[in-house]
Amino acid sequence: MTEVLQHADADLAALYAPHLMFDTNEPYLPHALGYTIFRIAGLSPSSKFAIEPLGALTIEYAIYYDWDIGHLYDLEHVWVHVGAMGEILRVEASSHGGCKVMDIGEGLPEFSSPQVFRRPSSLPGLSGHPVLYVEAGKHAHWASPAHMTEADRQKLAVLCGPLAGIEGVHLGNPFAKRGAYTARPRDHRLARLKMTTDAFEPGHSYRASSTEVPLLPWPDLEAIIPQRITDIMTRLETDQPHFAAIFLDCGDTLIDERTEEKLPGSEVVIRADLIPGAKEMMDSLKAAGHKLILVADGPRQTFVNMLTHHGLWDHFDAHIISEDVGVHKPDVRMFDAALAAAGLTRDDAWRTVMVGNNLSRDICGANALGMTSIFMAWSTLRTHEPANPSEVPDYRIDSPSELPALLDVLEMLTKYRCRPFQR
């Protein structure tokens, strides 16, 4: 066996490491490469594949990215098969869950210059590396960009554009499956929001990374990935602009006031029907990890009765009720109490939304503090015509079913760090 193969594992890994070429518009470059060297057949410690060296050894490179355009966490692989004389026999790489040979001719990929020797007769030394092309956003490997068909490019444009962020936090990997990190609904939403913000159009021209990527033994890389994912999710809370809280009225926003049944001789409502679509809307907002705060006028027991009956009381993270606060909307003390319950101050008001059916109370009060105001125009019990500019809502919806999609659009605009709408 050639002396080349007697080097330490770290030297061998550096000697044969692939040179990765990235799309010029690629937003997500790798954080580190982990390597494992196989001199006999064995199971990969980082992928689903069994490794069988074609020659003297196979070097597996696990390429870790914080982000794929579809999810937080991405781990791709390259396998370099090395013969007894130190020659590269074959290079394989991951591609959308599969493994394919990197071949531009003679079963071998492109090489950096000067080219790695391909057969024993070319032996003076090792100074080149296999060159692989990384698919924009998704990080699948190609031996040559010319191998991508027009259909491949069209599909990639959709994945990097309209479908960016579709998955949130990746949970189908071994780290998540064994509980090394977990993700809440809010983590998924913020991850999706970041990737949607990072959506791009592939350029289909390529460049090498301008920064050096660390090369580590796989156990070292494996040890840092779960904490890194957890840290990223934590940082998204402050780094990724988003709605910090959604404030909701109750009557004719969630509950149909015309169906209210009151305790005889009292203003306390015993029960009432939901507006069509209100339960589904609340379930959707909760599933998206929004912080939900009830901001309503009336006796506390009214809202306990109505919302508990429909399984919605516990959807709220806090309940700001006029009977408890001592004032009614649009008094700013109601909205200050709601902000405080969400862990916010007036400086954060632009990152909150107030949804209500009453222009003079819900909309006027929200507008006074700079919240995004959304008028729920489902009911005709109260006027739909603003009495003055302070009652003009930022947005209007006619049913609860419209709210989740509207919030998705408006939350994207928070990246500009200003109110989504200026009156």
UniProtKB/TrEMBL annotation:
Keywords: Hydrolase, Magnesium, Metal-binding. InterPro entries: HAD-like_hydrolase, HAD-like_sf, HAD_2, HAD_sf. The keyword ATP-binding does not apply. Gene3D superfamilies: HAD superfamily/HAD-like (3.40.50.1000). It holds the Pfam family HAD_2. GO terms for molecular function: metal ion binding; phosphatase activity. This is Putative hydrolase of the HAD superfamily. It comes from Devosia lucknowensis.
